[in-house]
Recover the amino acids of this structure.
């Protein structure tokens, strides 16, 4: 972390301003801790005391909203090693402890609820399901089994599962939910004409491809009521950011920006409280390097062109996540009105109290993420994305054990840590939860 000037008294900043959501709930400030895979659940997929310690630390660090990592709605369908699953109330006591910790210090804690569809590594799920049959394309395809096409009955069961998980989240004390409809997971698969080749009411036209997302949203809203925040994480397009960060054409034939805008408007009409803008899929990953701060400087804040495009078309609050490393960029984005919430992930794995430092202490430095390397070039090339994920998971686990993050830890130690935690599944690709 690069230091700059420390103010003697905290100035009034846009990041410190509260935000009232369409449902009437007020968030204390504009810091939105975006989802990262904590990888803290055991083989039983249950939340643990480590989740409690981790989210208490982040809540005390000053963020307005903490979004959990993936919480899956079906224990047979996991997206990554260490996922929590909530499909009944067996873990309600620990969920209540997790929610209570995450809502300390006036923070909101929202559960991100998800289903991986075909994007479930073969090492943990040899029988994935999807809108249509067909393997994951690209270099990652070998890591995933061929999925079976969902029947209408199975689709309706998954919709019920999303609503049930949201119900349990509310009962446990989480103050909102985020429906994950991005990053190539199941809802994104329904939205994409590349992945969804159905000929029934859930396939074909955009209206039909979006039906699954709308059905999930409506079922969740009916279950949790009108005053409970519901966010949706949605791809601006299926374009790989590392390749075409500011272009409007997504993956050829995939979910496009024009389609994304239409879906956002429909969600706004249905009463969504916040849209979390993202992008990329497994086949077209968001980031493919481990260059840290150098990568950040090349790219800057993600999705700004798209955010400017929709500024006048939507009134629902937007969370823009990715590339925010200093207060000046955050203030500029809020002042320009291209976002209402500052999404941060990876910096909070190194500086858990970053919101406090900026709002309370007036800190104006920059969080410089390190280049993650094993020191062996061919290993770095072979495990680039996995290496970065493992390194940030290790930092998260340190926080969860009551230790401080340690940016001096090397990539080799991170790989060994991940292998010890997850076994062979650690070496399969995972969506980069820690990428922001």
């Amino acid at each position: 972390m690069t230091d700059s000037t420390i103010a003697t008294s905290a100035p009034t900043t846009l990041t410190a301003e509260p935000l009232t959501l369409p449902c009437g709930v007020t968030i204390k400030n504009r810091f939105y801790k975006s989802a990262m895979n904590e990888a803290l659940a055991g083989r039983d997929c249950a939340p643990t005391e480590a989740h409690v310690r981790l989210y208490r630390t982040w809540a005390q660090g000053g963020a307005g909203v903490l979004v959990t990592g993936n919480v899956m709605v079906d224990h047979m369908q996991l997206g990554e090693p260490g996922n929590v699953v909530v499909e009944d109330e067996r873990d309600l006591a620990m969920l209540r402890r997790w929610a209570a910790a995450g809502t300390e210090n006036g923070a909101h804690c929202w559960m991100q609820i998800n289903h991986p569809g075909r994007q479930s590594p073969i090492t943990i799920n040899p029988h994935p399901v999807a809108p249509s049959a067909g393997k994951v394309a690209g270099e990652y395809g070998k890591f995933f089994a061929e999925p079976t096409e969902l029947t209408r009955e199975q689709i309706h069961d998954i919709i019920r599962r999303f609503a049930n998980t949201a119900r349990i989240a509310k009962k446990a004390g989480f103050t909102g939910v985020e429906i994950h409809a991005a990053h190539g997971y199941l809802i994104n698969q329904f939205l994409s004409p590349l992945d969804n080749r159905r000929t029934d009411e859930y396939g074909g036209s955009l209206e039909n491809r979006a039906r699954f997302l709308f059905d999930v949203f409506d079922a969740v809203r009916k279950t949790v009521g009108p005053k409970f925040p519901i966010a949706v994480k949605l791809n601006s397009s299926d374009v790989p950011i590392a390749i075409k960060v500011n272009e409007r054409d997504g993956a050829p034939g995939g979910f496009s920006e024009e389609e994304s805008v239409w879906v956002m408007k429909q969600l706004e009409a249905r009463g969504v409280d916040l849209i979390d803008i993202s992008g990329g899929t497994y086949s077209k990953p968001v980031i493919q390097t481990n260059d840290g701060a150098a990568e950040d400087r090349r790219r800057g804040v993600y999705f700004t062109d798209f955010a400017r495009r929709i500024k006048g078309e939507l009134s629902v609050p937007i969370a823009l996540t990715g590339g925010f490393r200093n207060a000046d960029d955050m203030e500029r984005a809020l002042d320009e009105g291209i976002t209402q919430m500052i999404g941060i992930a990876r910096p909070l794995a190194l500086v858990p109290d970053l919101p406090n430092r900026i709002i309370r202490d007036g800190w104006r430095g920059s969080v410089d993420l390190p280049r993650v390397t094993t020191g062996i070039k061919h290993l770095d090339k072979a495990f680039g994305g996995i290496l970065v994920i493992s390194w940030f998971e290790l930092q998260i686990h340190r926080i969860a054990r009551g230790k401080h993050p340690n940016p001096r830890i090397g990539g080799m130690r991170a790989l060994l840590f991940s292998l010890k935690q997850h076994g062979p599944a650690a070496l399969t690709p995972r969506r980069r939860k820690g990428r922001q």
The first strand starts at residue 19 and ends at 20. Confidence is low (pLDDT under 50) at residues 2-10, 240-251, 285-290, 431-436. Residues 14-369 form a domain with the TIM Barrel fold (CATH 3.20.20.70).
